[in-house]
Specification:
It is a single chain. The chain has three helices and 17 strands. It has a 14-stranded antiparallel barrel. The chain has one domain: Porin (Beta Barrel). By secondary structure, it is mostly beta strands.
């Protein structure tokens, strides 16, 4: 065995630790503090965060979303989601499904989840829903592509081509055609990126970062106010919490004009401000776009984040349900 590999020189070892520290910093920022992807248009894409949302459209609802974060920053996160959900003929139960692809740096993850919600009337117009989701998470990591200073470094050859883990979560939501309040934890199980922790970056540099996913908790809510015959105002919020990172929150204010055009503004605590629009081309088909401008140090390196969404609903609503949906 090559002794220079087994006992690296001090300068060589220092350089190696600096590189691994930088990699760990990036992975810790992108996948530890914000392991689960974030969405600016969360109020129109809630099934990705809360299984209790399944069936709330009272007919078949399909949403496709693509988020491109920190444009211009190499290896920045990109996320795509496809959700579908619908109530069953017996109104109390609804089914849904979520497919998600999340990529950042050398890491790509795929999530395949099935959502089931049980709903009950609370009062005349409100429903209380309890949801569970279950499925699989596929992790892929190409750490050898990070171009280390020393070729053959075992740390950077720790590729994980196909690591499949089970996953499940839960959520609850109280909603009507005018309000919603939800609490969820869509991923309860911790996912380790490596089978053997002795090969992780943590064991090399002794950092507090852990190469795995932890469960996030989401609290969200919103209400629709009438501001005249043709205008409505919808403020919403989203609070995100995960062990080992500060609590983060989004505040959004949306205005609906003529039941066709949404226009809004967003603030993400110490992270970004943004704007979002959505247009209902028909009663069934909608398109949306949002732009985030970073107010953190990322503004020196990134041109912001873009998010695109397409939605389509079809089928007849259940008997007796005629109110429009604003969430």
């Amino acid at each position: 065995m090559n002794h220079s590999m087994k006992h690296p020189k001090p300068m060589q070892r220092t350089a190696q630790r600096w590189i691994t520290a930088l990699v760990a910093l990036f992975l810790g920022t992108a996948s530890f503090a914000q392991q689960d992807p974030q969405f600016t248009q969360y109020m129109f894409n809630q099934l990705a965060l809360n299984p209790a949302y399944a069936g709330s459209a009272e007919r078949v609802s399909i949403k496709a979303l693509s988020r491109h974060q920190w444009v211009g920053f190499e290896g920045a996160p990109t996320t795509q989601t496809l959700t579908v959900h619908s109530p069953l003929p017996f109104e109390s139960v609804a089914l849904g499904g979520t497919i998600m692809r999340d990529s950042y740096g050398p890491v790509t993850q795929y999530g395949f989840m099935v959502d089931v919600a049980y709903r009950m009337f609370v009062g005349r117009n409100s429903k209380l829903a309890f949801g569970i989701k279950g499925g699989m998470n596929l992790f892929q990591g190409d750490f050898a592509a990070l171009n280390p200073l020393e070729t053959g470094d075992q740390v950077f050859q720790a590729n994980v081509s196909q690591k499949l883990d089970p996953q499940f979560g839960f959520g609850t939501m109280w909603y009507s055609d005018r309000h919603f309040l939800g609490l969820s934890m869509p991923k309860l199980l911790r996912t380790d990126f490596f089978e053997d922790n002795s090969t992780t970056l943590d064991s090399i540099i002794g950092s507090p970062f852990q190469n795995g996913q932890r469960g996030h908790t989401f609290l969200s809510g919103g209400y629709v106010f009438d501001m005249g015959t043709y205008t409505k105002f919808k403020p919403t919020f989203l609070v995100k919490g995960v062990k080992g990172a500060p609590i983060s929150f989004d505040l959004t204010a949306n205005f609906l004009f003529y039941e066709k055009f949404w226009l809004g503004a967003m603030y993400r605590h110490e992270d970004a401000v943004g704007a979002l629009v959505q247009y209902l081309i028909t009663n069934d088909f909608s398109i949306g776009y949002s732009y985030d401008y970073p107010i953190s140090e990322m503004r020196n390196y990134s041109g912001g984040s873009h998010e695109f969404m397409i939605g389509y609903e079809f089928g007849n609503k259940l008997k007796g349900i005629r109110s429009p949906r604003y969430f």
